[in-house]
Amino acid sequence: MNHKPVEGFSKLTKQGKIDWLVNEYLEGNEEYQNILKQYWNENAELQKLHEEFSENTISNFYMPYGIAPNFLIDGKLFALPMAVEESSVVAAASKAAKFWIDKGGFKTTIINNEKLGHTHFIFNVESHKLLHFFNFNLKKKLLSATEDITANMRKRGGGILDIKLVDKTAEMPNYYQLKASFDTVDSMGANFINSCLEQFGKTMKQEIAVSEDFTQEEKNSLQIVMNILSNFTPDCLVRAEVSCKIEDLKDDSGISNEEFAAKFKQAVTIAEIEPFRATTHNKGIMNGVDAVVIATGNDFRATEACAHAYAARDGQYRSLTHCTIDNGIFRFWIDLPISVGVVGGLTNLHPLVKFSLALLGKPSAQELMSILAVSGLAQNFGAIRSLVTTGIQKGHMKMHLLNILNQMGATEEEKQHFVTYFKDKTVSHHEVISEFNRLRAQ
C-alpha cells in the first residue's frame, strides 16, 4: 500500500477529511462513509460540541454507559455511572455493592489533597549557594510573581501550598527542581498548575540574571528545561474500606466463611508480593475506577499513570489493595492516589458528564475521589471473590456470551435459548459455536 502524505489535513472540512481517508486508505468504499455518519448526533449543535472536544474529529466513538446501583458510601446511597466496554465490570461492581450494603457499606477517608508540579532546570553552581539564594530571595519572589494567577484559586480556598528546591545533581549533572505543591479545590488544576510553573521559570531566570550572588559564567549556565505538573500525586490520597465479622461474611459459593476469608486474604497477599499477579490485580481495580472517571469527564490516563507509579513506589510493583483478619474481623481496603476535578474541562460541557455529576449529587472533588476509590475496591472485591470460589470465567464468559452471539448474527430467540442453555454451565467459545451450529442445523 503506497499512500501519499497529506498537506493541510486539519484545514479540510469534516467531509473533506472523510473523503480523503476513504479514497486514500479504504479504496473509496462508501460503506465506510456510512459507518462514520451513522454515529453522528442528529442534533447538529450537539455534534459540533463533541467535535470541538478534540482535533480532526470525523465521528463519535460510542461506549456503553451503565449504572451500578446500591453503593452505600459513608452512609449515603449512590448509583455509580460507568462508561466501560468490558463485559462483567458493571455487574461485578453492582454485586459487590449489594454484598456490602447490609454490612455497613464502604467507609472513606481523604488522607491528603496535595498536587505537585516541577520546574526542571540545569544550573552549574554550587548547591549551597543556590539553596541560600532560594531561601532568602527566590521563594518570596516566586510567590509574589504568581499572585495574579492564584488570586481566584485562593478565593476558593486553594492555591500554592509550598515551594521547595530539590537537588538532583547526584543523579544528573547540574540538575535541580523547583518542586511546588498545590491545592486546586474542585478542579483537577492542570492549567492552573502549569501556568504557575511557567511563571516560576520566568521569574527564576529574571532573578538570577540580576543577582549579585552568582558569577556571569554561572548565570550563563542556567537552562530552564521545562515547567510541568506531575501526574504522580502520592499526597493526593484517599482510603476506601469495608469490614465485618467473619461470621457475617456469607458467600453463596458453598465454602465456609472462614475458608472464604482465608483464601481471599491469601489472594491479596500474593498480589502484594508477586508483580505478575499484581499487574492483573491492579488492572481490575482500574476497571472500576476508570469507568467512573470517564463517565465524570476526567482523565483516565492520568489516574492510571498515578496509580501504577504509586503501586511501584518502593521499587517493586505491588497490589493497591490490602486485607487483614484480626480478632475475627475481616478488613479490606485501598489507598488510592487520584487527582480529579468536578469543575473545568468537560464537566461543564459534555451533557452525559453533567448527567453523571448530577446523578452523584454534584460531589466536590474530594467526594468524587472517595467514590472512585470505592468503585475500584468494589471491582477488586468482586474479582477476588470469583477467583477464590467459582473461578473468573463463569461470570465473565456469561457476560461475554452476547458479544459472541452478536458476532454470529444470532436472533433474539436464539439469544434467549443460549441464556437458558448456559444457566448452569460455564460459557466457552467452543461450546457456544457447537450449540449454535446444532441449533441452526435443526
Automatic annotation (TrEMBL):
<dbReference type="InterPro" id="IPR023074">
    <property type="entry name" value="HMG_CoA_Rdtase_cat_sf"/>
</dbReference>
<comment type="similarity">
    <text>Belongs to the HMG-CoA reductase family.</text>
</comment>
<dbReference type="InterPro" id="IPR002202">
    <property type="entry name" value="HMG_CoA_Rdtase"/>
</dbReference>
<dbReference type="InterPro" id="IPR009029">
    <property type="entry name" value="HMG_CoA_Rdtase_sub-bd_dom_sf"/>
</dbReference>
<comment type="pathway">
    <text>Metabolic intermediate metabolism; (R)-mevalonate degradation; (S)-3-hydroxy-3-methylglutaryl-CoA from (R)-mevalonate: step 1/1.</text>
</comment>
<protein>
    <recommendedName>
        <fullName>3-hydroxy-3-methylglutaryl coenzyme A reductase</fullName>
        <ecNumber>1.1.1.88</ecNumber>
    </recommendedName>
</protein>
<dbReference type="InterPro" id="IPR004553">
    <property type="entry name" value="HMG_CoA_Rdtase_bac-typ"/>
</dbReference>
<dbReference type="InterPro" id="IPR009023">
    <property type="entry name" value="HMG_CoA_Rdtase_NAD(P)-bd_sf"/>
</dbReference>
<keyword id="KW-0560">Oxidoreductase</keyword>
<dbReference type="Pfam" id="PF00368">
    <property type="entry name" value="HMG-CoA_red"/>
</dbReference>
<dbReference type="GO" id="GO:0140643">
    <property type="term" value="F:hydroxymethylglutaryl-CoA reductase (NADH) activity"/>
</dbReference>
<dbReference type="GO" id="GO:0015936">
    <property type="term" value="P:coenzyme A metabolic process"/>
</dbReference>
<keyword id="KW-0520">NAD</keyword>
<dbReference type="GO" id="GO:0004420">
    <property type="term" value="F:hydroxymethylglutaryl-CoA reductase (NADPH) activity"/>
</dbReference>
